[in-house]
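Aim 2, interim progress: modelling of the guanosine-5'-diphosphate-bound target.
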Amino acid sequence: WQKLKSGLARTSSSLTTGITAIFTKRKLDGATLDELEDILIQADLGLPTAMKITEALRRDRFDKEISDEEVRAVLAHEVEKVLLPVAKPLAIDTSLKPHVILVVGVNGTGKTTTIGKLAQMLGREGRKVTLCAGDTFRAAAIDQLRIWGSRTGASVIAREPGADAAGLAFDALKAAKADGSDVLVIDTAGRLQNKAELMAELEKIVRVIKKQDLSAPHDVLLTLDATTGQNALNQVEIFGKVAGVTGLVMTKLDGTARGGILVAIAEKFRLPVHFIGVGEGADDLEPFEASDFAKAIAG
Ligand code: GDP
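Predicted structure of the complex, ligand included:
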């Protein structure tokens, strides 16, 4: 909670400073509501949520004096209502050996780091974890995953850079089955520059996994970088079509002023949000919690 609260301090301070400026010694009327709506939109919360907040205020408090604390309480309440239905823990099915998680997302959004953090979390829960270095385009991504493996005790299945990612995923699932792993987490390349290639590669990975286990992958997680703001909305759209995303991880919520984007994404796509990233360290992955997030945003 402390990390989340300090991580979102910039998002909440831009909101609360604006709210205080609008409502100090002023009534809640059409003009102040318009100004408030602008601030909420600038904070990336999205138009539908911004309207819900201003409508709630208009309905209950129109033409009355209102303190900024009261406005922030309504903000927290309305944001929590949007987030509650999507805040869902990632459920690992222990009867599957392994539970297969495919991790997709644009390069730099935090895929590999999130996989490392997940390996840490699952390892602590006593699960046997295998990681597959499926971003075969970048030597650095393969090295990074190996480091996470040795740090967390997870096995890492990797090949030399340039190897066929689908072939590697096939081998990784075989190996994870053979050694009784509880969870297999597969990294992937995230080159949005060539969408057709990206699509073909992700489809091929899913196809070869299904050859061994028709129910897999059991989760397709999309990592989104909170600092990119509105861009994240396009990424959900694209990867949703290409990879059949089942859940989201929002990274880099430490120190961004654009944390409100998570609310816009929740409102627009209604996809489960499983985790948030609040730093670069192994322990900086937290299960997503609607009420904490709403409170941290509202300051
Ligand atoms: P990938 O290309 O999607 O695999 O992204 P990486 O996992 O390599 O991450 C890109 C950069 O973002 C690295 O420098 C990470 O340390 C950093 N990063 C990832 N997640 C977080 C986070 O939650 N907070 C912060 N501050 N940095 C993060």
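The mean pLDDT is 94. The pocket of guanosine-5'-diphosphate is lined by residues 105, 107-113, 141, 190, 223, 251-252, 254, 277-280, 284 (CB under 6 Å).
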